[in-house]
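Figure S4 source data
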Amino acid sequence: MADIKAPVVWRDMDQAALDAAYDQNVYAPNRLQLLERYSANSDTTRSVLGAPQRFGYGETEIEGLDIYRSTRTNAPIQIFIHGGAWRSGTAAQYAFPAEVFVRAGAHFVVPDFDWVQVHNGDLRPMVAQVRRAIAWVARNAGKFDGDPDRIYLAGHSSGAHLAGVALTTDWGGEFGLPSNIIKGALLCSGMYDLKPVRLSARSSYVSITEEIEHELSAMRHLEAIVPPLVVAYGTLETPEFQRQSKEFAAALTARGHPVDLLVAEHCNHFEILETLANPYGLLGQAALAQMGLDSSRL
């Protein structure tokens, strides 16, 4: 009797394969070790740099951001949007790249925001918070000696998804800010089209309607993206996270949009982010170059 193949759900994947392709535990068995290292290295970073300044960008307690300040006045600003599958992670756990930027002469800003389960699976409140956090930084940069004309954005994993959607914001219409308020962005290991996510097991905790799928897929709104981008992924990532990055970068390139695609050899989804904390690492070097900062200062 011939084997009965499971039906294809997405591209050449059946349901089990697609679910695995959006489950980091399958492709990164050292996930918990690396997340614990993020936290430990963030504690070490604070022991060196001191506690961050904390500012509120909204009305609720979670709507705050941590600012690790450079000694340089009117310094450029790197805003980092953390990951966590939209349902975990805090700003305090993602301080570990801060020293690279602070030593190079930039402020490093990490916003906190709600997890998706707080809003019954709706991603839109998280997107709104990220947008408001960016707008707050642009309007209040002077409070921490930051340059509002040199704001850069980075994000990892679900944070790269949120950052990618933020790049499609109508900053003028929604916030009265210049359309080019973000001067450059680095998106690492993200999701830029929510259709396969909607079809995967992540739909058990994320509620993605057709409307939300379209609204919150940066891939569907390439014309709204203004700044040059760096898009990165690791060769040990899931096949879908690799594909999403490659196709997003290719679509931008086809439009003539400036984008660099970086590939971290032998790095999984969590290992690649650690290179942001190294001025000579793949992401650290790219982020500093994008900001026009000199790693030799370190």
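Figure S5 source data
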Amino acid sequence: MPAPRFLKARLAAHYAGLFAPIGVLLPFWPVWLAGRGLSEWEIGVVLAAGSFSKVLLNPLVGSWVDRLGRRRTAMIALAFATFFSFCAFWVTEGFLPLLLLSALSSGLFAAQMPLAESLSLHMAHRHQFDYGRVRLWGSLTFILSAMLGGWMLAGRSSEIVLPISLAGFLLMALISLGLPEFSVEKKSEETGAGMMALLSGRQFLIFLLAASLLQASHTVYYGFSTLHWRTAGIDETTIGLLWALGVLSEIVLFSQGNRVLKHLDPRRLLILAGFGGLIRWLVLGTTTWVPALIAAQMLHALTFGAAHLGAMHYLLRTIAPNLSARAQGLYSSGVMGIALSAGMLTAGPLYHALGSMAFFVMAALSCIGLLVATRLTRNT
């Protein structure tokens, strides 16, 4: 079957659309929440609610798409629903309303990522191109968005974070209109049967646990590194550049994805991510000296990049195509939902009680994650 016209460009553009708002939200949304009067504990709970909403929504969306056999319509609907839900933050005040709206809007947004990953991975496999070189355009856009957000926030009210984010969400929704369709054979089995087929596999559960620990080790960084660095006197532009540098290192890894996978199987990539986290979080917990932070941020290529590349190719190699959206949904809800929610719920109290030493707890999570990853079957 010939590839759709401009396939790689359309997929790359969609990743750019997805990551345009993430580049602003991830480093600076806690600052916006703090500007609305939320405490560190409340910020952690609001961020956790956004992650936890994936637990319910992602498997449901994945199951529906697998039964439908198509991806594009659902992804477009979710993109526009996300934009309109984030518009509601203009008129939302107070901890409880912000909590509820965050759960809804973040859930709608998060449901798009496993569908995008499933679409891109199977298109890459079918038409023989490097998934990493398409995915890196999302990371590149993250860099530009983080730098733009830091530059625009410098010397201005934290309220500016919201309109910048909304511009990114609108771009994401418009780009989704150009997505290619991808169909797989429809299966008649019930949703629960498909889920149980996945969850009954011991190796799949070990994989989910390892990936959960590795991703949860980022929660203090995601939630409080910007606030921590601001308190240490680092300006917003430098903070934006630090975030951008981390993702730039991820881009380098993704650009060489196929070459890396010739030498390192998914299991070894997950183990490498654990080693990277052990070093990175110890550095962030020890110092706010900018040259040291620069070196630590380059380890994002391992802590996130290697973990993500390993996880995506583990799913591609071990999961049947007709279960792929469900598997991606379970990964997203379990790893990026439950694990990140639990991490965010504890990140606020940890940072409040321990300050920079909260990063040492993240180092411990990375260490445990790499040990669990060693239990995966070799050469998956």
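The chain has a mean pLDDT of 86. Residues 7-181+191-373 form a domain with the Growth Hormone; Chain: A; fold (CATH 1.20.1250.20).
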